[in-house]
Write a structure and sequence with these properties.
Two copies of one chain form a homodimer. Chain A has about 260 residues and is mostly helical. The first copy, chain A, has a single domain (about 10-250), classed as Ferritin, core subunit, four-helix bundle (Ferritin, Up-down Bundle). Chain A is about 65% helix and about 0% strand. Chain A is globular, with a radius of gyration of 18 Å. The model of chain A has no long low-confidence stretch (mean pLDDT about 95). Chains A and B meet through helix 1, helix 2, helix 3, helix 5 and helix 10 of A and helix 1, helix 2, helix 3, helix 6 and helix 11 of B.
Chain lengths: ~260, ~260
């Protein structure tokens, strides 16, 4: 078994890991729909979205490895960290759920990522700005596609509405974490790397209100609960997703099995 | 549970199902690598290949539904047939196997599909010719990518060579089926729909000999065994892959769960 790598966790590296890991883990969750989507067209759309997200993760993790300066490449960062060193939003590690859960989560994350990539286009870090320029177009499409489904389900049958309402209640618990700023955000803002995520909250809520309104859904009240994946303290689901992801790389270090 | 659809199985429809189902089932098998490939780059490459194959399947099955004339769309054809009505090569329904098995099978199927799509570009069926014009470019890339891996593994470590040799011995049993012509082929050739698959054998063997030669591997002797997926008589693996694929569509007919 390949041992874990240790991460030199400067605030800039952590800021990038939050972005890259959120893309990586959501891409992983979405790819679980491959061959399981209800219609072929949606199977293709989901796979495309997973591909975009894994491509974004790859670019950001490559850059994080460079900033870290220990020679870790994107594969080592993706596959060989301990759970506590993954810095994704808890929201994206929750199990796939049903189709309503999936499209609502996609809408929530894509809306956030779109707003974040828009700001990162003017990052003082030219490499990150370049990644953002490409990623923002993908995130816009992801948002639109997912939002269309949310509206279709919210405005659909009793069953589809019931499912999307339940998904909304479940997912909304994980929203506060997104916008909680901390020392990592402060350092990124000060260094001109990227915005404090709290700065994106008002815009995100406005866009989500539009989507939920069209779907005939109401935004739930904010939860008191605070999830903590961004700080490396994950839900019970994270261990399973890492076991799935890391199995091959750990068993055959640097190999191709 | 949604009932199966019955297929009006004219030779032209069967000919198309052999193509569409081979793409569909291989796409399904390759998509099992999503999130499990040994490196992120390969995860992306595999997912892209699966996407291409599912897109090709979708186009061909849509057209098969039109020719069949019973109003079946591509989703009904993909998800609601009984096992005996799937007409893919047995080769593609074999379990995913290890990475050596996967890339060697991909090389074998992509080489065949490339040669088939090349011929289908001049099909008398304009719709099929149009599909082939796009698909041939994708198949060329799939062949190249897979062949590169076969060479890399065959010419790699003792372990990688041992694995690809074993895969070759296993997979070669399923080659004769590809080129066995029957009444479906005869009807397709007579109608100008497409070539008898036997006509592609010499070209396929020549290209495979080149790939195997570069990898330092020898082509095994032809097997006496004849697999029969093209005629709807499948290996024991087919039931499991259909159970996976059909579960959602059968449980929620026409729905999105």
């Amino acid at each position: 078994m390949q041992a874990s790598i240790a991460i030199e966790s400067t605030p800039a590296v952590q800021y990038l890991l939050r972005i890259g890991d959120t893309c990586l883990i959501l891409g992983q969750r979405i790819s679980e729909w491959s061959g399981h989507a209800p219609i072929l067209e949606e199977d293709i759309a989901m796979s495309n979205m997973a591909l975009d997200l894994i491509g974004q993760a790859r670019a950001v993790l490559t850059h994080a490895g460079t900033l870290e300066g220990r020679g870790h490449d994107e594969d080592q960062l993706a596959f060989l960290r301990d759970e506590k060193d993954y810095r994704n939003l808890t929201l994206v590690e929750l199990p796939r759920g049903d189709f309503a859960f999936t499209v609502l989560r996609n809408a929530m994350v894509a809306t956030f990522m779109k707003l974040l990539w828009e700001r990162l286009r003017s990052s003082g870090d030219a490499e990150l700005a370049g990644i953002a320029g490409k990623a923002v177009k993908e995130a816009r499409y992801h948002q639109q596609h997912a939002a269309d489904w949310v509206v279709r389900l919210g405005d659909g049958t009793d069953e589809s509405r019931r499912r999307v309402e339940r998904a909304l209640a479940d997912l909304w618990l994980y929203v506060p974490e997104i916008f909680e700023s901390d020392a990592v955000d402060d350092a990124a803002a000060t260094a001109g790397l990227g915005p404090r995520w709290s700065e994106l909250q008002a815009g995100w809520q406005a866009e989500m209100d539009t989507i939920l309104g069209e779907a005939g859904l109401s935004r739930p009240a904010d939860a008191a609960f605070r999830s903590t994946g961004k700080r490396g303290v994950h839900s019970e689901h994270m261990g399973y997703i890492l076991a799935e992801m890391q199995h091959l790389q750990r068993a055959f270090p640097g190999g191709v099995w």
